[in-house]
Amino acid sequence: MNNILSINSIRFVVLILIQVLMLNNINFFGYINPYPYILFIILFPVKSNRALIILSGFLLGLIIDMFLDSGGIHAAACVFIAYVRPVVLKFSFGTMYEHHNIKFSVVEFGSKITYITLLVILHHIILFSLEIFSLPRIIFVLQKTLFSSIFTILLCMTITIIFSRQPK
Fold it and tell me: Domain 2-163 belongs to what architecture?
């Protein structure tokens, strides 16, 4: 249990540092921003307490909001994906989720990409809708969501592939 706590604590700090120090300065074409800090919520242990992941998601988003001075939009988006995560897990992994035996390093690639894609798109829709908050600019919200989601998904998949442990 201590090992899982220390790994998640390190992941929390490292993802925040990467987001704040490096990736917040990236802005391709005015609307493509990567947000791989949500990998913390995506990779949080399945067997953990649901209130703990929602609280952790809130703290994660709040810290990012403090660095970006964005008024709570990251916290709202993180709490939302932390809240709907069990539904997305069940949709993506089916019976594996029902038995709580999901290990992200050994699940099939299709299920993993479905899971990551759904959470990233949900996060980005909430984030950019709250950021822009204008119905006439809905096309811009969708465009920003699409392109930022593609870039974030590619970055998240690359990080998970690089740092995944191979089963023995």
Answer: Orthogonal Bundle (1.10)
Burial of 149 (0-12, 13-18, 19+ CB in 10 A): buried
Instruction: For residue 98, give the 3-state DSSP assignment.
Output: helix
List the domain boundaries for the chain.
2-163
Tokens in use for 138?
């809905």
Go through the chain and tell me how many residues it has.
168
Cα distance between residue 135 and residue 33, in whole Å = 21
The two tokens of residue 141 are: 């919200």
Q: What one-letter code names the amino acid at 120?
A: V
Sign of CA dihedral 126, 127, 132, 133: positive
* Per-residue pLDDT, 45: 82
Which segment of 15-24, 112-121, 126-135 scores lowest on mean pLDDT? 15-24
pTM above 0.90, yes or no: no
CA distances to 28, 69, 72, 88, 139 from 20, in Å:
16, 12, 15, 27, 28
In the predicted model, what is the mean pLDDT of residues 149-153? Answer: 93
